[in-house]
Amino acid sequence: MKLDNYTAIDTKIHGMRKHLLTSEKIEAQGDVRTLNELYTLITENPSYKKAAEVLNTDVSSREDIELMLNYGNFFEFLKIYRFASLQQRAFLKRYAMFFEAWFIKHTLRSVVNRGETTVIMSPVTHYLDDNRKFKTTELIMATDVKTVVDALADTIYGPFFQNYSNLFSQNDYQRYEFEIAFDQFVIQQIWHGGKKYLTGESLNGFKKLFGARFDILNIFTIYRLKFLYQLSNNEVTSALVDAHYRLNDEYIDRLLEAPDIRNFEITVAELGYGDIFEHLSTDESLQKYEIAFLSSLQRHLATRAPKSMYAIIHYLEDSRRSLLMLEELTERISYKNISPIERSLNQ
Question: Where is the signal peptide (predicted)?
Answer without folding.
Answer: none
